[in-house]
Write a structure and sequence with these properties.
GO terms for molecular function: ATP binding; protein kinase activity. This protein is α+β, with helices and mostly antiparallel strands and about 425 residues long. Helices cover about 35% and strands about 20% of the residues.
């Protein structure tokens, strides 16, 4: 899809001290992009949206199911949208982490394609574009769901993404509805609504670069234990996932913080239980919101329980009226306090003001590597193990299995090459 410019890619990666990533990324000149627009601004970078013309008259290459394994096909689309995220040079290891996630079969995240350089000189990470937006925007812009099956399906998909992260030894550490996005297409030519997680591990990069006490994240979505100076673990992600499950139904952020909710509520839950909701759903919420991390279910348990909920039934009128009341109250509160915001900059500032209440977390939750400025450790970890990987070959990102340091096309016994390095 994006052939050429290999020498330019290597030149810029060498400047960044990331030359070992050359076999995993592509370079796309900035002038190739059309209609570049600001998509969002955070505390550390700006994200843009743009589109590219296909270099092939058949459209963009995708993977299609074959009789055995996969085959290359074309989607017939003559242009495709991408997200361009500015690279903060102080947080350069985010590029390494994003590459690791994109090419080690962690299919929970938005894919990293390559790099570019904007007119201001900022490097840009080129990523797949989540055309359906974030969970946060979907909650704000859409009316409440009318059937529990719709809620169960979205919760299962989000749980599956987080389960895969945990399975690979990763912890998100900043899980909130702005960091859950949706796509309607994948590289495997599948269609539907697919959840993906973004900014995975960015909080670890931020905390490591700052080198002082503090934790990065949105205060209303932080788990209770960080207010008690306990470590952030996979069980902390589970607490945050419970909050996502609640917001998926109600459509608004939770009130206050976990610390204030636990102090004020007799049941020590993060939020009110949803009246009229299926008891199995409420039971799962309660378990995710246990104040003791050791008593929370794992994401594997959560996924199993969500699939056990079946297709669900229509949302009760009692539930709909309660949701409408909560949404109206939230709207009035936002109107009264027009300075309150839910963007990154507000919560980053608020977290810094409360920094003395937290302690630093400086370890990347990535197996077999501490995400140095190269991928040699990652490559060593992959050798001799079976992982789903994505390689750039002839401009196409093709999914393959790596075993014993060699490459096999998934579903085929034909050797295709060797691992780089």
């Amino acid at each position: 899809n994006h052939p050429g410019h290999e020498d330019t890619l290597r030149f810029h990666l060498a400047k960044l001290g990331l030359l070992d990533l050359a076999d995993y990324l592509v370079w796309i000149p900035y002038e190739s992009f059309n209609d570049v627009q600001v998509l969002g601004k955070g505390g550390f970078s700006t994200v843009y949206k743009a589109w590219l013309d296909s270099v092939d008259s058949r459209g963009f290459a995708v993977l299609e199911k074959a009789d055995i394994g996969w085959k290359v096909g074309f989607d017939g689309e003559m242009k495709a949208h991408f997200a361009l995220k500015e690279v903060n040079l102080k947080l350069i290891q985010e590029v390494v982490l994003s590459t690791y996630l994109a090419f080690c079969g962690v299919l929970s995240t938005i894919g990293l394609i390559g790099l570019s350089q904007g007119p201001s000189g900022h490097y840009l990470m080129i990523m797949d574009y989540a055309e359906e937006g974030s969970l946060e925007k979907r909650c704000m812009n859409n009316p409440p769901a009318t059937h529990w099956g719709e809620i169960f399906d979205m919760a299962r998909d989000m749980a599956d993404r987080l389960y895969l992260l945990h399975r690979y030894g990763l912890v998100h550490k900043d899980l909130h509805p702005g960091n859950v996005v949706f796509r309607t297409r994948t590289y495997a030519a599948r269609t539907g609504l697919f959840a993906r997680l973004i900014d995975v591990g960015l909080s670890s990069v931020v905390e490591s670069s700052q080198g002082d006490d503090g934790i990065y994240g949105r205060l209303p979505y932080l788990p209770i234990e960080v207010f008690d100076r306990q470590p952030y673990t996979s069980a902390s992600d589970v607490y945050c996932f419970g909050t996502l499950m609640w917001q998926l139904v109600v459509g608004i952020p939770p009130n206050g913080t976990a610390a204030s909710a636990v102090a004020e509520r007799t049941d020590r839950m993060r939020e009110e239980m949803i009246p009229g909701a299926p008891e199995v759903y409420l039971d799962l919420l309660r378990d995710c919101w246990q104040t003791d991390p050791a008593r929370r279910p794992t994401m594997a348990d959560i996924l199993w329980r969500l699939y056990g909920m079946g297709k669900g039934s229509a949302v009760a009128e009692e539930t709909t009226k309660w949701i409408e009341g909560r949404r109206a109250a939230h709207k009035r509160m936002m109107h009264l306090d027009s300075e309150e915001s839910t963007d990154f900059e507000f919560f980053e500032m608020a977290t810094q003001n409360l920094r003395s209440q937290f302690h630093p977390y400086k370890t990347f939750k990535v197996p077999a590597s501490q995400l140095k400025a190269n991928l040699s450790d990652v490559q060593d970890d992959l050798r001799g193990k079976k992982h789903l990987r994505v390689l750039r070959h002839g401009g196409l990102r093709a999914r393959v299995c790596a075993q014993d340091g060699r490459i096999r096309v998934r579903g085929s016994s034909r050797l295709q090459g060797s691992l780089p390095g």
